Amino acid sequence: MAHQEDGSGIIMTTIEQVANWGVTRSEWPVTMGLACCAIEMMAFGTPRFDASRFGMEVFRASPRQSDLLIVSGRVSQKMAPVVREMYDQMADPKWVISMGVCASSGGMFNNYAIIQGCDHIVPVDIYLPGCPPRPEMLINSVLELRKQVMNEHKITKKRRLAAARAAEAAAMNAAPTHEMKGLLA
Ligand code: SF4
Description:
There is one protein chain. It contains 6 helices and 5 strands. It has a 3-stranded parallel sheet with strand order 3-4-5. Strands 1-2 form a two-stranded antiparallel ribbon. The protein has a single domain, classed as Rossmann fold (3-Layer(aba) Sandwich), CATH 3.40.50. It is mainly α and 185 residues long. The structure holds iron/sulfur cluster. Residues 35-37, 73-74, 100-102, 107, 131-132 line the site of iron/sulfur cluster. Iron/sulfur cluster binds at residues 35-37, 73-74, 100-102, 107, 131-132. It is found in: Cell membrane.
């Protein structure tokens, strides 16, 4: 920001930064809960934690009106195609937060029924640790996501998308969960 002699000021920025500022001030998460972490995610929107202070408490009932997917809890094999379909139906640009240790790595559920990390099915932007993470931690992860998006420009966005596609391709070629031996190997 530069100041003129008469006290007025001008701001110099780029259209990209203004657009990034706009999209990061009004995330609309899609309504989807998978397990116990979802209870903490619900608390995140209540008056006690008041996520609306940051303009992000409006959970949308349709993925077509949402740009943030919070994977809250372990993802079973049965739910995996549903989660992926919801992600595919969301509007671009879109982001994913993996909430809790189960969503990020399968957590304590080291078995054939649970996907060992939701990054096997969707590209994850933020991994939120904890079992379950507190609502304040979820608020913090959305604020961290904002910083990430604000610092993103065309080239890094392309790189991020390329990395996400590469991760998806690797996940498609990885051994299926029912073939994994886990701790019993
Ligand atoms: S991380 Fe903990 S609270 Fe969250 S789904 Fe797993 S067991 Fe439940």
